């Protein structure tokens, strides 16, 4: 169940991060409310997940998968470029997450 909570936390963080641009520097009310609500939900669920998952493993998954998802969203929906350097960086992040999980104490 802890990994389900972590997955939902990552999803909430990715949605919140995706909304940052639409807040216009936190000057637009509803996008700001949605963005901050997403972050609040994400941290609430992350706090619950780390009751059972080691913090290092949880944060590796959180940051790695979140970063990869945001790069993909930026490329697909926000018109951001994705070159070889970005793809290599994402591959290294994912490799790091895998290594941390393999070395983690589950």
Automatic annotation (TrEMBL):
Gene3D superfamilies: 1.10.3730.20. One of its GO terms (cellular component) is plasma membrane. Coiled coil: none annotated. It comes from the Bacteria. One of its GO terms (molecular function) is transmembrane transporter activity. Keywords: Cell membrane, Membrane, Transmembrane, Transmembrane helix, Transport. The keyword Ribonucleoprotein does not apply. It is found in: Cell membrane. SUPFAM superfamilies: Multidrug resistance efflux transporter EmrE. The chain crosses the membrane at residues 26-47, 59-78, 84-104. Pfam families: Multi_Drug_Res. It is a multi-pass membrane protein. Belongs to the drug/metabolite transporter (DMT) superfamily. Small multidrug resistance (SMR) (TC 2.A.7.1) family. This is Quaternary ammonium compound-resistance protein SugE.
């Amino acid at each position: 169940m802890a990994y389900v909570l972590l997955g939902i936390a990552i999803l909430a963080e990715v949605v919140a991060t995706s909304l940052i641009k639409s807040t216009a520097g936190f000057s637009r009310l509803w996008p700001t409310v949605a963005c901050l609500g997403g972050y609040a939900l994400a941290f609430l669920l992350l706090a619950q997940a780390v009751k059972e998952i080691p913090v290092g493993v949880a944060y590796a998954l959180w940051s790695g998968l979140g970063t990869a998802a945001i790069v993909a969203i930026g490329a697909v929906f926000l018109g951001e470029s994705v070159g070889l350097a970005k793809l290599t960086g994402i591959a290294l992040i994912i490799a790091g997450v895998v290594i941390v999980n393999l070395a983690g104490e589950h």
